[in-house]
């Protein structure tokens, strides 16, 4: 009967099992690296194919030698000061928004170009597009829960978001305008 040390040595010397173990360790390390990347960058690896590694690639697959990898930096297209911040609504068409279940807010996520938030009663979600000259288009839908007296505010928020054409940032304030330059919504960056 082989000892535990001999079994472990046999397991590690098996090329298939060793390759599998290396793959698991590499996957784990990539997952940890991706989780530790900042919101403005993601880490991706690319297999380096040089003439020396290309010639030995088939030999490496049989012997279990690891391939050479190098990190690549991929920029995420966010808008500094606008995206990846919670914006608490301060005014909608010059009226103060009411918190019914929670405070109305917006959140523009740069990686997915998604908008989320709350109307004060229902959650809202959708997509946004931004371009040159601080243009901004928002397409969002709200949930279906009913709150006392919240329907009018929710309808107004959804109407306003659908008419947004451009934005302006000043300090910790966000101003959303329609295509004629009329102020639709004001929000403050949450602390």
Automatic annotation (TrEMBL):
<dbReference type="InterPro" id="IPR038670">
    <property type="entry name" value="HslJ-like_sf"/>
</dbReference>
<dbReference type="InterPro" id="IPR053147">
    <property type="entry name" value="Hsp_HslJ-like"/>
</dbReference>
<dbReference type="Pfam" id="PF03724">
    <property type="entry name" value="META"/>
</dbReference>
<feature type="signal peptide">
    <location>
        <begin position="1"/>
        <end position="33"/>
    </location>
</feature>
<protein>
    <recommendedName>
        <fullName>DUF306 domain-containing protein</fullName>
    </recommendedName>
</protein>
<feature type="domain" description="DUF306">
    <location>
        <begin position="82"/>
        <end position="186"/>
    </location>
</feature>
<keyword id="KW-0732">Signal</keyword>
<dbReference type="InterPro" id="IPR005184">
    <property type="entry name" value="DUF306_Meta_HslJ"/>
</dbReference>
